[in-house]
Amino acid sequence: MEHPKLLEIFRQNEGKYLSGEEISKRLSISRTAVWKQINKLREEGFEFEAVSRKGYRLIHSPDKLEPQAVLQGLRTRSFGRSLKIVEVTTSTQEEVRLLAEQGTPSGALVLAEEQTGGRGRQGRKWFSPPRKGVWMSLLLRPERPLSFAPQLTLLIAVAVCRAIRKTSGVDAGIKWPNDLLVQGKKVCGILVESVSEDERIRYCIAGIGIDVNVEAHELPADLQAVATSLKIESGRNQDRVALITAVMNELEDLYTLYEQEGFTPIKHLWEALSVTLGKRVAVKTPQGEISGVADALDESGALILLDDKGMPFPLFSGEVHL
Ligand code: BTN
Prior knowledge:
The chain is 32% helix and 29% strand. The chain is built from nine helices and 14 strands. The chain has helices at residues 4-12, 20-27, 31-43, 67-73, 92-101, 149-168, 230-234, 240-261, 264-273; strands at residues 47-51, 55-60, 83-89, 109-115, 133-140, 173-175, 179-182, 185-197, 200-211, 280-285, 288-297, 303-306, 312-315, 319-321. The chain is elongated and about 80 Å long. It binds biotin. Biotin (BTN) is lined by residues 91-93, 115, 118-121, 124, 126, 128, 135-137, 179, 189-191, 207-209. One of its GO terms (cellular component) is cytoplasm. Residues 68-259 form the BPL/LPL catalytic domain.
């Protein structure tokens, strides 16, 4: 954002008129400079009402992610506090990988308005059009063995699902391990990439993609039948900043709960939000396709399938077809 200070003043005085003189004093710049900055913001889509002898009033902000708005909504200790927002990038996963390798501490968050090479699980592409979604990656440095990664993935799915329900009212559910569905269609995907050394995690990159304000006709043809957005499901535009901050707040709360009480409470929350449990599913695994009834999560985070003879079969990864 080019003029954060000017915007901050308008945001702090929501609905009020601010005179050019007052702004110029507060920012220690000339009145001409104030006028130029306001015009620049108008070009970016901000709308100001100008009334003689009263001044300017901000009446509309374009749907653009601004760091100060995100920071204001956070009630976290570390998640999202170190924040980078980029207009366009190949993938936020790569942005965070660079930060991680530079030694950036846990909790750093990168948000993009648009991704040109958004990545999904199993080498798939992730559709990430400008300003229509939440495309973000969070750096985590859990001091844990690599076997912790599947539990972390499930924990993230719970956090995002709760945040979506709270902010949009949309009834999202979790498909094992971490797709979020609404009425059978995918609204969010999560990609956790872990870098380890000697079986211990060095860092994890938690990538979260939420289709927020994508319209039905904007979805590529191959996604029309299988994907949806919060706007399509709720019938109204959704506030991306409220969603982002809710995800960070939920995520840090659950992470703290996990550190204090282990996986059991997370497992119960996951089970309550699951759309997979109790259903007959077919799962593609590296060993071939297995079908059965999804019965429960075990303490490690594996999905227990009961085959036709009632024999339990733990699944650690794979693609579930409901
Ligand atoms: C999936 O369901 O296949 C996972 C999709 C993950 C998409 C997110 S968007 C932000 C981050 N950057 C990426 O390139 N991918 C993840």
